[in-house]
């Protein structure tokens, strides 16, 4: 199993992980085709080639995602994967 697959399985695990790192999220989103842009500070926009965009703030100082951020990332991945079948 690839590192990418392991990260993704961890993200979608139940219950959600309580130690998921920001760097792992970036890797997953890049693998899914998202490009991230930081307009300054900790605010990021993630844009997919399909046109789907969502925003998230990087957690400080730990870099560990909060549960709502994990849910946002999972929702974004499910939306763009649903669009692939259209």
Structural overview:
By secondary structure, the protein is an alpha+beta fold. The chain has a single domain, classed as 2-Layer Sandwich (Metal Transport, Frataxin, Chain A). It has helices at residues 3-11, 22-31, 67-84, and strands at residues 35-38, 43-47, 53-57. The protein has a three-stranded antiparallel beta sheet with strand order 1-2-3, with helices on one face. A hairpin with a 4-residue loop joins strand 1 (35-38) and strand 2. Helix 1 crosses helix 2. The longest helix is centred in the C-terminal third of the chain and has 18 residues, at 67-84. The radius of gyration is 13 Å and the shape is globular. The mean pLDDT is 89.
The number of distinct β-strands equals 3
Largest beta-sheet details: 3 strands, antiparallel
Name of the CATH architecture: 2-Layer Sandwich
Percentage of helical residues?
40-55%
What kind of assembly state do the chains in view correspond to? single chain
CATH class: Alpha Beta
Query: Please, how many helices?
Result: 3
Mean pLDDT, nearest integer? 89
- Rg from alpha-carbon coordinates: 13 Å
Low-confidence runs of at least 5 consecutive residues: none
Order of helices and strands: HHEEEH
Indicate how many domains the architecture comprises.
1
Briefly note the CATH topology name.
Metal Transport, Frataxin, Chain A
What amount of the residues lies in strands? 15-25%
Question: What coarse outline follows from CA principal-axis ratios?
Answer: globular
The fourth-level CATH homologous superfamily is Hypothetical protein
Strand line-up in the sheet with most strands: 1-2-3
* Helix vs. strand class: alpha+beta
CA(first)-CA(last) distance: 28 Å
């Amino acid at each position: 199993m690839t590192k990418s697959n392991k990260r993704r399985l961890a993200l979608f695990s139940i219950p959600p992980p309580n130690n998921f790192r920001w760097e792992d999220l970036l890797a997953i989103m890049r693998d899914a085709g998202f490009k991230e842009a930081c307009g300054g500070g900790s605010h990021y926009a993630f844009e997919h080639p399909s046109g789907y965009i969502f925003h998230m703030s990087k957690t400080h100082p730990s870099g560990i995602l909060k549960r709502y951020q994990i849910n946002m990332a999972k929702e974004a991945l499910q939306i763009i994967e649903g669009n692939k079948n259209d």
